[in-house]
Amino acid sequence: MRGREFFTARTVSETLAGFRPARRTAVESVPLAAALHRVPAAEVRAPDPLPGFVRSTVDGFAVRAADTYGASEGLPSYLDLAGAVRMGAAPTVAVPPGGCVAMPTGGVLPDGADAVVMVEYTAETMPGTIEVTRPVAPGGGLVRADEDVAAGAALVPAGRPLRAPDLGLLAAAGVTAVAVHARPRVTIVSTGDEVVPPCTAELAPGQVRDATASALAGLVADAGGEPVVAGIVPDDPGALEATLREVLPTADLVVVSAGSSVGARDETAGAVAALGDIWCHGLAIKPGKPTLLAECAGIPVVGLPGNPLSALVVFRLVGVPLVWRLAGCEVPPPEPTTRARLSRDVPSAGGRLDVVQVSVRDGVAAPLFGPSALLSVLTRADGHLIVPEPATGLDAGCEVEVTLYR
Amino acid sequence: MRGREFFTARTVSETLAGFRPARRTAVESVPLAAALHRVPAAEVRAPDPLPGFVRSTVDGFAVRAADTYGASEGLPSYLDLAGAVRMGAAPTVAVPPGGCVAMPTGGVLPDGADAVVMVEYTAETMPGTIEVTRPVAPGGGLVRADEDVAAGAALVPAGRPLRAPDLGLLAAAGVTAVAVHARPRVTIVSTGDEVVPPCTAELAPGQVRDATASALAGLVADAGGEPVVAGIVPDDPGALEATLREVLPTADLVVVSAGSSVGARDETAGAVAALGDIWCHGLAIKPGKPTLLAECAGIPVVGLPGNPLSALVVFRLVGVPLVWRLAGCEVPPPEPTTRARLSRDVPSAGGRLDVVQVSVRDGVAAPLFGPSALLSVLTRADGHLIVPEPATGLDAGCEVEVTLYR
């Protein structure tokens, strides 16, 4: 069995730092309207400067700044109104010395002008004559043609998922398609003789419907991946190995949610070891210890504990960053968090990361304990808190940071 | 002009509390795999109890608890091994007095047994005889048939968007489709003589590409809505009114991103007032003051400032909760936040909510100032901080909470 020497337990931080498969998904071009949360494969640069013309930032009058020097309420400058600039059109008049042109916010500065005086500091005392009561400096009331973005400057960086405002800047620059990493295909394999599909109407004694695959698919989608639910494999190393051989060629990441018995856990390791190298088997985390990380023909494989809650805990901490990294994003976008006061003591063993499901109400985080086999915790938990490896528990009343589920 | 008497400025908190259109989207059934972040229209209840059978939570041996009373390392109980339970199958043997049956985690408790003793406290000293070194109480090592979820109990509540773990519990209960509110259709109308579509390759002098619509579409999608980009209307009240008449019948919410000139702002109000009631015109927020909220034939209409950054600020604070509410969700899911130290003083006028774009690095939030017309702030900002209405500024070095963009 290849890789047996790597059968070793790791801490979560060792895993995040050390298990970094080189694989990245292919690059594809998507239209801007489909680019939200996708990861640009390269920095996107501005083809042209923005705004592209000298643009007024105020409603007022385009002037030669020197014509306003010394202007005050008591001693205004008087300028001849030479015309008006229309929105979205080139100016049809220039500003002569001693003259001005009416400007809307966003209009093009006419030739001859070097500033725009705000309408608030002007009055049309006589038809055709504008009184200016405050001086404006050259460059006042306008932005330069490349002040927003210079030609060739970065619009959005590579590797950071695109946010809604990014789409606005790209649209302004005329970028209507972006080269992004393909969504990682995450193939989810469930195992267990007792596990049947969720659509099973009537359960035979001892059967349970597959809870983990549906929840994992949701986490994968939240991480920008494309979940592929590959179905349920019986507790049989040959069957799992055959399934892995079948799904590996079309997957970017394979997730095996193990059966919950001791035997089932070992079967995953056996099947994976036959196809690649096991990086760790056992994680210093509770719940989630029976976790396996491997690479098979360049495809990362995550073997999750059989308990659905444990599987989700591990996938959030270890699997979600992997999905993002496969798409070229090294720092996953932030998750919602809140600070809360702990309602009761939380025991923990040192040297192990403890992940505690909590409900949060009115600033109080209440740990949800009880048999770990209970699935109803999945919907009662608003989030989790982490007791780090060195700590040996948290005291009631202390302030904790809760990662909120969304 | 109807509704003229309502032309009135409001605070953001007044608006969130007071502008609450009654409209909700229709209810539709979606398969579980498409239900992530959708809002259930009604509580979903369990058709049957979970797990549905008395289930072992440990690997070990099903026993009659009384047969283990008094067992210890020094004086074990000896039980006859009557057989084994297979995963996913009904037991084929019962536990007789003085006997036991081998149990995998997740197996069905056989008749006669009332507890499962963990394998760690047992040894098979002779073939067919199990030595038990620790007593187990009745109910130990197992969950009752309805301990996880009772028949008819709530699986997920109405009105809270479904999270990934919720999908797991629903799958376990055999719920493969959920009645959810339809995604709100949010029709985005851009206005302005200077505004041209993002696909415009060459700009004529004074033209700008529509940045706001693409960014708004992203925010709408993040809020679970379906953005419908309706295109660009010239600065003409008749044209805007005609467009509104056309889009209102198929929209759940209409968003008008106004031209940036004074005249353009007033045109939105005129067109909307002709079709419905204006709830407020002017919001005590910076940036974003020229905001308009109205209801036209039961459809909420949001008129946004012409400046793209201002438009996004207002839509995040006022529009996003509206989109969620249209889908039946009163409390939008949490956004990511972080605490950071402010790098410099932020001035603010009392009585107005100030929204300051910031970049965040190493726990320091640096306000992004400069001409508000600059679009590049859209991608440089990692989030925003809020200076509440009563405050008159924030001091450099103080701790602030930043809402992070994702």
Automatic annotation (TrEMBL), chains A, B:
Please indicate if the UniProt record lists Iron as a keyword: no
Its needed co-factors are: Mg(2+)
UniProtKB keywords: Magnesium, Metal-binding, Molybdenum, Molybdenum cofactor biosynthesis, Transferase
Instruction: Tell me which PROSITE patterns the record gives.
Output: MOCF_BIOSYNTHESIS_2
Indicate yes or no for the key word Protein biosynthesis: no
Query: What domain of life?
Result: Bacteria
Q: Which InterPro entries match?
A: MoaB/Mog-like_dom_sf, MoaB/Mog_dom, MoCF_biosynth_CS, MoeA-like, MoeA_C_domain_IV, MoeA_C_domain_IV_sf, MoeA_linker/N, MoeA_linker/N_sf
Q: Which pathway does it take part in?
A: Cofactor biosynthesis; molybdopterin biosynthesis
Catalytic function, reaction form: adenylyl-molybdopterin + molybdate = Mo-molybdopterin + AMP + H(+)
Q: Which residues form the MoaB/Mog domain?
A: 187-325
Q: Which Pfam families match?
A: MoCF_biosynth, MoeA_C, MoeA_N
Q: What class of enzyme is it?
A: transferase
Q: What is its EC number?
A: 2.10.1.1
**What's this chain's function?**
Catalyzes the insertion of molybdate into adenylated molybdopterin with the concomitant release of AMP.
The family this protein is said to belong to: Belongs to the MoeA family.
Name listed for the protein in its UniProt record: Molybdopterin molybdenumtransferase
Organism of origin is Pseudonocardia acidicola
